[in-house]
């Protein structure tokens, strides 16, 4: 039996060398994003989820790629955030926080999210 994977749109928000993560009630941090609704385009899902979770508006986002994991697929975007813009948790999110790469090693992060960051870094490095 072929089990279908969850489809997600995920946004890597960057600001001054830091990456934005969000946290629900659980202690695990994740990149902003979430499930794509039936009939929804992945760009629209990224826009909706980012706004719902952080109050940020999706703008100047680069599409990085489509990545398939064992139980989920991610349409990945990267978006720079101006230093004057501050994300605020909303809906089911209890905390938004900027992390440096070294700080991420000290907290519980969804494993696929670390891989997505690595893939985005490679993509951006190869484009410059």
UniProtKB/TrEMBL annotation:
Domain of life of the native organism? Bacteria
For this UniProt record, give its keywords in alphabetical order, as a comma-separated list: Hydrolase, Magnesium
Co-factor(s): Mg(2+)
Tell me which stretches of the chain form a coiled coil: none
One GO molecular function term of this record is: hydrolase activity
Q: Where is the Nudix hydrolase domain?
A: 1-122
Q: Which family does it belong to?
A: Belongs to the Nudix hydrolase family.
Q: What is this protein called?
A: NUDIX domain-containing protein
């Amino acid at each position: 039996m072929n089990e279908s994977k969850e489809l997600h749109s995920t946004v890597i928000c960057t600001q001054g060398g830091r990456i934005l993560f969000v946290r629900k009630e659980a202690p695990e941090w994740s990149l902003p994003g979430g499930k794509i609704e039936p009939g929804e385009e992945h760009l629209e899902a990224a826009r909706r989820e980012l706004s719902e979770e952080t109050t940020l508006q999706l703008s100047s986002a680069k599409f990085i790629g489509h990545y398939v994991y064992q139980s989920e697929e991610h349409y990945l975007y990267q978006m720079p955030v101006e230093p004057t813009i501050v994300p605020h948790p909303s809906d089911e999110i209890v905390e938004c926080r900027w992390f440096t790469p070294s700080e991420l090693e000290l907290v519980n992060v969804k494993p696929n999210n670390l891989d997505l960051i690595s893939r985005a870094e490679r993509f951006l490095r190869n484009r410059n």
